[in-house]
């Protein structure tokens, strides 16, 4: 199944507020399929539609650890294909309840190579629709709660670097811009 290209910071699409989905049609089903493929391939544990250039309120998530097996060569590990048993797809997701706080390390497929501690709510209840149009409610905590908060932020054009304190944010932005500058120079050469 096709994977889609993941947009990276500072692509302006990542800053757009996404529109609610009004109809679950073939294009949307294809988008969900492609987003899951793209997330697993990356590999990542969550992906929001704007990261693949679609400004609609859609996310996928799967925090189930992927099974690793030893490869044929020494120190080689092979990541088995995900079984998708814990894949979550949400259309028009909303956080309807949240409680507590926790600081944890966070990264983003759209800001590859950078992580930072981010304060999030510890516990959330998320409501949204599945691909069949049924309303689903998910109560969760810790990592999955963090993923939902991170991905729903994406739907509002917010990146994890925006959630840092001012000093930390400026420092990380400088590092990212420096890395991007280097990449551009290499591309020219
Ligand atoms: Ni992200």
Task: Detail the topology: elements first, then pairings.
Layout: H1 26-41, E1 46-48, E2 58-61, E3 68-70, E4 77-79, E5 88-107, E6 115-129, E7 135-141, H2 142-155, H3 166-188
Antiparallel strand pairs: 1-2, 2-5, 3-4, 5-6, 6-7
The structure holds nickel (II) ion (NI).
Question: Can you characterise this structure?
Answer:
With 189 residues, the chain is α+β, with helices and mostly antiparallel strands. It has one domain: Peptide deformylase (Peptide Deformylase, Alpha-Beta Complex). The protein is built from three helices and seven strands, in the order H-E-E-E-E-E-E-E-H-H. It has helices at 26-41, 142-155, 166-188; strands at residues 46-48, 58-61, 68-70, 77-79, 88-107, 115-129, 135-141. The strands form two sheets. Strands 1-2-5-6-7 form a five-stranded antiparallel beta sheet. Strand 5 (88-107) and strand 6 form a beta hairpin. The protein starts with 25 loop residues before the first helix and ends with a helix. Nickel (II) ion (NI) binds next to helix 2. The site of nickel (II) ion has 5 residues, from helix 2.
- List ligands, each type once: nickel (II) ion
Summarize the main sheet: 5 strands, antiparallel
Overall geometry comes to globular
Q: Could you spell the SSE succession in H and E letters?
A: HEEEEEEEHH
Q: What would the keywords be for this entry?
A:
189 residues, alpha+beta, Peptide Deformylase, 5-stranded antiparallel β-sheet, two-stranded antiparallel ribbon, binds nickel (II) ion
Write a brief caption for the model.
This protein is of the alpha+beta class and 189 residues long. It contains three helices and seven strands, in the order αβββββββαα.
